Amino acid sequence: MSAYFARRLLLMIPTFLGITFLVFAITRFVPGGPIDQMMAAMQSAAAEGGAAGGGEQIAQIPPEVMKALEQHYHLDVPFWMAYLYWMGDLLQGDLGTSYKFNEPVLGVITARFPISIYFGMIGFLLAYGVCVPLGIAKAIRHGTAFDFVSSAIVFVGYSIPGWALGAALLVLFGGGSFLDWFPLGGFRSPDWEQMSLGGKIVDQVHHTVLPVLSYAVGSFATLTVLMKNSLMENLGQDYVRTAFAKGLSERRVVLVHALRNSLIPISTGLGHAIGLFMAGSYLIEFVFNINGIGYLGYISVVERDYAVVMGILVINTLTVLLGNVLSDVLYVVVDPRIRFS
User: Fold this and answer.
1) pTM here?
2) Chain segment 47-104, per-residue pLDDT in tens
3) DSSP bridge pairs for 174
């Protein structure tokens, strides 16, 4: 088994290289890079100055400065060579410098990483904490009114994108035309540091409820139906009928015998789900104005801050790849009969 996981870890290297090389190539060929952004900003400032002075000015970057900028961003070499430069810096722990924030990319990302983990992990725990018991209840009460009503609710939630649900929740409960129960967005109130402990807790909860619901709603239907179908399949197995024949209670048969095998499909996607939740959601954080990894990624793409885009890609890719390996580990833990070779 150790040989299998060693191969999985080694396979992460070409996968990581392939993903980063493809995205790096795209950033090099998409117009509107950092130098173009600088020139546009200079021309905009010159146009405003010309309008104020009654004349027209055209800003140009001096050739020697242009050459220095191209060397700094490795635009004076083929893109594959620039990728090698970038990879060499990455192996030394250097993700580059953000064009927009003029700070090291690693610092820009790590400053926002706890915010995305906070919302992502709460949404992750909420989804699994609700969907697993709900799937068990639906399997036991299959065909009842509870089963049909709960299925309708979770599939309606599944059909609504998280960012669209977030916008609707803000309109309904964020002081728009209806109720003023929750703030319009942000991670905390501006005066959070001056609040008492109880006030901080209440304020944090107020800023957490709506984004977490938007995070978790997309996974409710998938996890619930997966849990229900898996449990129903195991309840029809011979070992379950044998357990009932021995006189064991339904609760013991379901929760002790059938449930463990039913959790296998859930566990296989657990690591991947952790990677997705830790990566944050671009549009959900944008809707709620949460300054996390997702919002940073959105702004970086819009502003063509490719150093930050690549930095976020590195973290997200490694998280998902390691999450997939974690899924295999959990697979073995849940079902000891599994042996990888």
Assistant:
1) 0.76
2) 666 555 554 555 566 677 667 766 766 777 788 888 888 888 888 888 888 888 888 8
3) 180
Phi, psi of 76 (to 5 degrees): -95, 5
Q: How far apart are CA 293 and CA 316, in angstroms?
A: 10
Amino acid at 265: P
**Euclidean distance between CA atoms 180 and 178, whole angstroms:** 7
Handedness of CA 142, 146, 149, 151 (dihedral sign): negative
Q: Quickly count: other Cβ atoms within 10 Å of residue 249's Cβ.
A: 11
Query: Which pair of structure tokens corresponds to residue 33?
Result: 């890079």
> CA 99, CA 222: separation in Å to the nearest integer?
40
- What residues contact 306, with CB distance under 8 A and at least 6 apart? 27, 33, 34, 99, 300
CATH superfamily of 105-334: MetI-like (1.10.3720.10)
Bridge partners (DSSP) of residue 269 are: none
CB 182 within 8 A of CB 209: yes
pLDDT at 269 over 70: no
Of residues 22, 4, 25, the one with CA closest to residue 14: 22
CA distances from 334 to 135, 139, 189, 339 (A): 18, 20, 42, 12
Q: Please give the single-letter amino acid code of residue 60.
A: Q
- Tell me the backbone φ, ψ of residue 104, rounded to 5 degrees: -60, 135
Contacts of 184 (CB under 8 A, 6+ apart): 170, 174, 175, 289
Can you give the three-state secondary structure of the chain, one letter per residue?
CHHHHHHHHHHHHHHHHHHHHHHHHHHHHCCCCHHHHHHHHHHHHHHHHHHHHCCCCCCCCCHHHHHHHHHHCCCCCCHHHHHHHHHHHHHCCCCCECCCCCCEHHHHHHHHHHHHHHHHHHHHHHHHHHHHHHHHHHHHCCCCHHHHHHHHHHHHHHHCCHHHHHHHHHHHHECCCCCECCCCCCCCCCCHHHCCHHHHHHHHHHHHHHHHHHHHHHHHHHHHHHHHHHHHHHHCCHHHHHHHHCCCCHHHHHHHHHHHHHCHHHHHCHHHHHHHHHHCCHHHHHHCCCCCHHHHHHHHHHCCCHHHHHHHHHHHHHHHHHHHHHHHHHHHHHCCCCCCC
